[in-house]
Specification:
This protein is an alpha/beta fold. It folds into 2 domains: 68 residues, DNA polymerase, domain 1; 281 residues, Aldolase class I (TIM Barrel). The strands form 3 sheets. The protein has a 10-stranded mixed β-sheet with strand order 3-4-5-6-9-10-11-12-13-14. A two-stranded parallel sheet has the order 1-2. Strands 7-8 form a two-stranded antiparallel ribbon. Helix 1 crosses helix 2 and helix 5 crosses helix 6. The chain is globular.
C-alpha cells in the first residue's frame, strides 16, 4: 500500500496543536494572530478534514499553509463489522498499521485507541507484543483514530487499551488527552477517558500528577513469579511497587456515599487463564495485594491468539472468582466479550495485514 494515499508525507499535522502553537504558525506564515484561533475552531469544533474547508481563511492563506501543513486526518484503510455492532478499524500511518475498536453498548459507545505501532512489553497473551516495538504514534495519529470515524459524535468514552503501552509514549498520550479535555478542544470530562498501563514507574507518577483521567493497571496475576511468566515487564516494574505507588494517591469508586467529582477511578485488568490465575488461592492473593486501595477489578475472558498454550477459563470459574472477590470487599465485574467474529484480540488485524503484504511482496 502506498502510504502517501493515507497521509500527507513531509507535512506537519495541525491536529493536536494547542491554540498558542496554532497562533505561532499563523504569525510565522505572515498571517494575523487571530488566524490561530480560527484554525483551532476548524480543527476541534468543526472537525474539518482539509485546510481547503477552512473557508474563512483567504484562498492565498489556505494555499500557503497547505504547502507546509495538513490537518492530519486520514481515513481508515479497512473496517470489520461484528454481528454485535463492534467495529474494528485499521489505520496505516507513516510508522505502520494500528487498530482502533468502536464498541457500542446500550447508551454507551466506547472507542479503544492505540498509542504505538507494536509494543515493547512482550506480554505472552498479546498479539501486538509479538510484533515487537516499531514506532511511537504522534499526537495526530492518536487523535485521528477518534477524529476520522463516522461514529465520532456518538462516543461516550475513550480507553487507551489498544496497541502499545501508553506510559511508554506518555508525552503524546498526555497531549492527546489535553486536546480531548480542554475547553478549546473537545471539552470532554477526563472521567470519560481511561488510560491503561502495565505500570511503568517512569510514567506512573507523572500520569497521576498531571492527568485527571481514570487509570487501569494491567495486572493478570497477583504474584510476582506468575505475573513475570505472563508479562516480562514485571521484572522491571513489579506489581508490588506499582501498588505501593498507587497507595500514595486518592481514588474513589462511584458510590452513593462518596463524592466522586474530584477523584479518578482506579481499576485492575485481569485476564483469567485456566489453571494459571483462576483459583481461590489467586483470589486471596489479589485481596492481600490490593488491601487498602479503593479500586475495582475487571475480569476479562481470554481472546485466544495463534500458537499459544494459554486457555481461557470456564464461565463458572469466572463467576465464582467475581463473587468471591466482591464478597471480600473488592468490587469485581466480568467484562462482556465483544467482536469475537472480527479478530477480537488486540493485534490480530494488524498482524494479518502485515502477513498479507509480506506474502504479496514475496510473490
Amino acid at each position: 500500500m502506498d502510504v502517501s494515499k493515507c497521509v500527507d508525507v513531509g507535512k506537519k499535522a495541525l491536529l493536536g496543536l494547542t491554540p498558542n502553537e496554532l497562533r505561532d504558525i499563523a504569525v510565522s506564515n505572515g498571517l494575523p494572530a487571530f488566524v490561530g484561533k480560527q484554525l483551532c475552531d476548524w480543527l476541534y469544533a468543526k472537525k474539518v478534514k482539509s485546510l481547503e474547508q477552512m473557508t474563512n481563511l483567504s484562498k492565498i492563506a489556505r494555499r500557503d499553509l497547505s504547502e507546509k501543513y495538513t490537518v492530519g486526518c486520514s481515513e481508515p484503510v479497512h473496517r470489520m463489522c461484528s454481528v454485535d455492532g463492534t467495529v474494528k478499524y485499521l489505520y496505516h500511518t507513516t510508522q505502520g498499521y494500528v487498530e482502533t475498536v468502536y464498541i457500542p453498548d446500550g447508551q454507551r459507545a466506547t472507542l479503544c485507541v492505540s498509542c504505538q505501532v507494536g509494543c515493547k512489553m512482550g506480554c505472552k497473551f498479546c498479539m501486538t507484543g509479538r510484533q515487537g516495538f516499531v514506532a511511537q504514534l504522534t499526537v495526530a495519529d492518536i487523535l485521528n483514530q477518534i477524529y476520522s470515524i463516522p461514529e465520532r459524535d456518538s462516543l461516550t468514552n475513550i480507553v487507551f487499551m489498544g496497541q502499545g503501552e501508553p506510559f511508554d509514549n506518555l508525552d503524546n498520550v498526555l497531549r492527546a488527552t489535553e486536546v480531548l479535555t480542554s475547553e478549546w478542544g473537545y471539552g470532554w470530562s477526563p472521567k470519560r477517558i481511561t488510560v491503561s498501563s502495565v505500570g511503568l514507574q517512569k510514567g506512573l507518577r507523572r500520569f497521576l500528577d498531571e492527568s485527571k483521567c481514570h487509570l487501569a493497571i494491567s495486572l493478570h496475576h497477583p504474584e510476582a513469579e506468575g505475573r513475570a511468566a505472563l508479562m516480562p515487564a514485571e521484572r522491571a516494574y513489579s506489581i508490588e511497587q506499582v501498588v505501593k505507588t498507587l497507595k500514595c494517591y486518592d481514588f474513589c469508586r462511584k458510590s452513593p456515599l462518596a463524592d466522586t467529582t474530584k477523584q479518578r477511578r482506579l481499576s485492575f485488568e485481569y485476564i483469567v487463564f485456566r489453571g494459571i490465575n483462576d483459583s481461590l488461592r489467586h483470589a486471596d492473593a489479589l485481596i492481600r495485594l490490593l488491601d487498602g486501595l479503593d479500586c475495582r477489578i475487571n475480569l476479562i475472558r481470554f481472546h485466544s491468539i495463534p500458537d499459544t498454550p494459554l486457555q481461557g477459563t470456564d464461565e463458572e470459574t469466572m463467576v465464582a472468582l467475581r463473587d468471591y472477590l466482591t464478597s471480600h470487599g473488592i468490587f469485581t465485574t466480568i467484562r462482556a466479550s465483544r467482536g469475537q467474529d472480527i479478530y477480537a484480540a488486540c493485534g490480530l488485524l494488524t498482524t494479518a495485514q502485515q502477513e498479507k503484504e509480506a506474502g504479496e511482496s514475496s510473490e
